[in-house]
Amino acid sequence: MKQLPFTRLLSLASRQLLRDARAGELRVLFFALLIAVAASTAIGYFSARLNDGMLLRATEFLAADLRLTGSSPSAPEQISTGKQLGLEHAQLVEFSSVVASDAGIQLASIKAADSAYPLRGELKSAAALYDAEQIGTGPQPGEAWAEARLFVALNLKPGDSVEVGAKTLRLTRVLTFLPDEAGDFYSLTPHLLMHLDDLAATGVVQPGSRVRYQELWRGEADALAQYRQGITLAPNQRLEDAKDGNRQVGSALGRAERYLNLASLAAVLLAGVAVALSAARFAARRFDASALLRCLGLSRNQALGLFSLQLALLGITASLIGALLGWLAQLALFNLLQDLLPAQIPPGGLWPALAGMATGLVALAGFALPPLAALGRVPPLRVLRRDLLPVPASSWLVYGAALLALGLIMWRLSLDLQLTFALLGGGLVTALLLGGLLLLGLQSLRRMLAGASLPWRLGLGQLLRHPLAAAGQSLAFGLIILAMALIALLRGELLDTWQDQLPENAPNHFALNILPADKYAFAARLNELSPHPAPLFPVVPGRLVMINGEPVRQIVSKESQGERAIRRDLSLTWAEDLPADNNLIAGNWWTDANTSELPGVSVESELAESLQLKLGDRLSFSVGGLNRDAVVSSLREVDWNNFQPNFYMIFQPGTLQDLPVTYLTSFYLPPQYEKQLVELSRAFPAVTLLQVEALLEQLRSILAQVTLAIEFVLLFVLAAGLAVLFAGLQATLDERIRQGALLRALGAERKLLIKARRAEFGLLGASSGLLAAFGCELISFLLYRFAFDLTWQPHPWLLLLPLIGALLVGTAGVLGTRRALNISPLTVLREG
Amino acid sequence: MSSSILTARNLSKVVPSTEGELTILHDLSLELVSGGSLAIVGSSGSGKSTLLGLLAGLDLPSSGSVVLAGNNLASLDEDQRARVRAEHVGFVFQSFQLLDSLNALENVMLPLELEGHTDARQRARTLLDRVGLGQRLTHYPRQLSGGEQQRVAIARAFAAEPAVLFADEPTGNLDSHTGERISDLLFELNQERGATLVLVTHDERLAHRCQRLIRLEGGHLVDHVEP
Q1: In terms of pLDDT, which residue wins out, B67 or A376?
Q2: Dihedrals φ, ψ of A52, to 5°?
Q3: Domain ABC transporter, which positions (chain B) (predicted)?
């Protein structure tokens, strides 16, 4: 036949497609695609928007979206660049200085901020000590707000004046909450907030003084990214965003993000399976049509082109509708969850919809290619001899392409090569290994079957007749169960991890500056109020000055964790026993046989790494004007997330006792004990009580959102999985309907047909479950090990998967092929 | 005189269509004695297959009744009718209708097993021997020619020793030579086993091998011949 112009082929294809659609031929493939695209779009939007929302919450810990910090003022172009990009800007200068009043002096952490501060989160204050908190903007020029402990230390009340350097400021309010200091409850000095305009007049900030300059930025993600790229950082400067800003939030967010990505990947995998199943059916049902077209003179390529175009048209239509459905679904979801979510949730942009559509199209192309290629090879003789099937192709190549496509989508979605490889590789290896085993198992089943009862023989005969197809189906169902089990498994694991991190009665208060004289009385009072207060830790402020005789400043690089640790006083402590949640990773805890003439010190492992410390190194501290030397005797891992007093340096007992010491502890107090707290602070005026409830609340609310997200994503994956299961069953429906009608005509009762189906699908489900159990363990091992940084343990409950699979697939199988049971036996007469 | 095995009284079948209700079978009655044979002929769309379906209990009439081996089919539900079919009825179809997932022997065993016979295998083997397929017991339908498939179908139809055998265009998909041999086989076995045969066919020659012949046109009985 002469060359068919593309437009003719296109119109032929679209007409054919419409006819097929009218005849109900495309339902399964269309439906599978729709689910695939809708599920990945909805999950994409959900996780993207929720992630943005969570990041937004997390930005409160920075008081900005992005923070530029340095020990010298920022260059003018660093500020003008941000402003040109349309970013909102606030300026902040932080330093330590002495605050003086008539009653005395007190070292304070001072923040001088302009009126725009904070750009994210809220500033809270009270009109008087222990009054109710109010939200509002910061102090005006000439005014200052101070924390309660500064008021107590200097015996002040609101309205009194203090001096900061050369400037006199009126203390107008009690500062109760600084968003960007919420996590920093180890700081020993009280905070004072003043206006930036008064800074010059204090005369405190001189060249060379120890000051932190901060430029705060807020704006669109694109503009922020441009800002990141557009500016050059001086060696003493660095940029922080929400993920760097806070340890607890950072790790929770990181895991949540990975989890949501994983769930999207699972949805994509399921989608791929669904499309593969139905595309194969699409092709099989077109063998006759293809042969006929070839007989009518269409060339192989033209026939192939015609079907490809049909598929493409179908794919684009389904993708568009699916993306719309997915978008609507997540909209409805956010609407439902309105009360639980932050008020401001970014709309999510177009990207998740495009990714969802691309997912559908690439999966369609990847998985429909092999059967489509087969269509082109249908010999025209099939018109006369129906048993002629297309010659087999080098399917490996084509399936390889499909896998590659899938891998690309997964990688693009997660931007995480490890995760993609773990999932795809684990899945593939499992599939190949167990698919082979399954095939062998089915073959040996044939021998055992001879003596089985009729329903079993009918049911299993169906499986054994096409062992390859049965193995494929079992693999497909296995993948579905695997994906669902894996997502459920990880959900439980992540939630447990977070629950451990933030138990209900996590300490929500810190008590600092407990004087030795008050120690026992305070501890006794605390025992009455709080169920499990942490022990009282002695604290001596001291600074690390030398390592092995060399000044620390020459050793440590700027802006490393080590630098931050040494530029301020550390809380030095001593302890008889290793504190709870501390984990010794090198050296020994104190033994009687300490051979060194110097006392030992145990160093936190991350700091040790940053300062390049090893066992036996000699450290010199400046403590209250005196020098104290110690030898590194052990390294400890510390769980900084546990809201207990934690220390970088723990000394051997008896080393620091002669120095002026105060005590530190943390404890849990139920929120309604507010009054007792005020009494406690009045009974021990020198003690500083720090509430971290706000921080805990903030963390809890973020974790609650993450949990919610995870549960909903799980629901989506489950729904997608079940839908795919039914789509897979649909693929074999034609054959079953015919068989059902014939058996009915021959006198078989419904009961027998149901029994046969149960036997068939039960066995299929059990083998799928077995497959899923193996695969799930393998992949979870890889993921825990390499992606989530969790300790892996075997999950015995996975052994239930074969049973669950048998029940699930058995039930779904009987339900999904109901039509084949209820079919009128009369249809056998009509088939002819 | 043998007793009546199949009685139809005033059978009508009405189906809905886009232009209202369509009567495809009009008030048809007939009675068949045990061991007899009846051919139903008529052009396409004359209602032959509809009548066959009603007589065999595959479908229910809109009005009228069918009594098959003493069972009034209208008073039975689908499962009960299935039991009647299992006990009393055999089928031969134009398109053979063998189960692809079962081999020849298993296909023939099927109706025996549905009835719960313990010697199904032996009886199926004997029947396949009888239809000349003793050497192809383990072959699957795909591996058999059309004529061979129809032989398996005939063996299956007679396996449970049905009282009535319904054959719907049994030679329709076969060449004339093979068709001839298949119809010979059908009549031979029918005689041997003493079954009642109800045959739907286009083929006048085949029809005239039956004891009685009815002709349908537009759902009406137009001719009733008892040679």
Answers
A1: B67
A2: -60, -45
A3: 6-227
At residue B185, the 3 state secondary structure works out as helix
Q: Pull the structure tokens for residue A499.
A: 């629950």
| Residue that wins the pLDDT comparison between B169 and A413 | B169
Q: Quote the CA–CA distance of A810 and A546 in Å, as a whole number.
A: 71
Confidence check: pLDDT of A291 > 70: no
Q: Scanning the structure block, which residue is given the tokens 């269409």?
A: A298
Beta bridge partners of B223: B215
Mean pLDDT, range A803-825, rounded to an integer:
82
Q: How many angstroms separate the Cα of A172 from the Cα of each of A96, A140, A154, A192, A689?
A: 20, 9, 15, 11, 21
Q: Where are the alpha helices (DSSP H) in A537-656?
A: 552-555, 561-566, 605-610
Is the peptide bond preceding residue A599 cis, with omega within 30 degrees of 0?
A: no
Could you tell me the two tokens for B30?
């007939």
- What's residue A320's pLDDT? 93
What is the value of pTM for the model shown?
0.59
What is the torsional sign of CA B202, B162, A449, A730? positive
User: Both tokens of residue A475?
Assistant: 């693999």
Sheet with strand B164-168: strands edge to edge: B89-92, B164-168, B196-200, B37-42, B212-217, B220-225
| Domains in chain A: boundaries | 1-61+250-415, 62-245, 416-506+696-832, 534-667
Confidence of residue A355 (pLDDT cuts 50, 70, 90): confident
Q: Where are the domains of chain B?
A: 4-225
Using CA atoms, how far residue A649 sits from A540, A575, A606, A616, A621, in Å, is 11, 10, 12, 15, 11
- Taking the Cβ of residue A441 and every Cβ of chain B, the question of whether any pair is shorter than 8 Å is answered with no
A207 interface with B at CB cutoff 8 Å: no
Cβ within 8 Å, pair B82-A747: yes
Q: Is A618 on the interface with B (CB under 8 A)?
A: no
Residues in chain B with CB shorter than 8 Å from the CB of A744 are 78, 82
pLDDT band at A11 (very low <50, low <70, confident <90, very high): confident
d(CA A42, CA A716): 8
Say what the alpha-carbon torsion angle B173, B179, B184, B187 is, to the nearest 10 degrees: 30
A172-176 average pLDDT score: 89
pLDDT at A832 over 70: no
For residue range A62-92, list pLDDT tens digits in order.
788 888 888 788 889 899 999 999 999 999 9
From the list A667, A609, A601, A608, the residue with the least C-alpha distance to A634 is A601
Q: How far does the CA of residue A468 sit from the closest CA of chain B (Å)? A: 14
Spatial contact of A772 and A481, defined as CB atoms under 8 Å apart: yes
What dotted CATH number matches B4-225?
3.40.50.300
